[in-house]
């Protein structure tokens, strides 16, 4: 499984979401790879995943198929719920 976070360095909500993820690292399953992609540096990946705004988080299953997406900021509880499928 993979958690992909699309962000931009100039994006204040992206910076805040990074802090939420850091505070909640213990909630992320050990087998889940966390990937951060700067949309200004890797526009091809942003196009491939049809990212229209930042921050965007996408969860991929073991076959690299998207099964969950969230666009925008999340607080700590919302992030935890996103990881387990309730957000």
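^ structure tokens above, recovered residues below v
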């Amino acid at each position: 499984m993979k958690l992909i976070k699309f962000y931009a360095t100039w994006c204040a909500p992206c910076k805040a979401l990074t802090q939420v993820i850091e505070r909640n690292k213990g909630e992320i399953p050990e087998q889940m790879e966390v990937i951060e992609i700067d949309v200004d540096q890797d526009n091809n990946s942003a196009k491939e995943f049809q990212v229209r705004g930042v921050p965007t988080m996408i969860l991929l299953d073991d076959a690299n198929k998207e099964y969950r997406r969230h666009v925008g900021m999340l607080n700590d509880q919302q992030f935890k719920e996103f990881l387990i499928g309730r957000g």
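The first strand starts at residue 2 and ends at 7.
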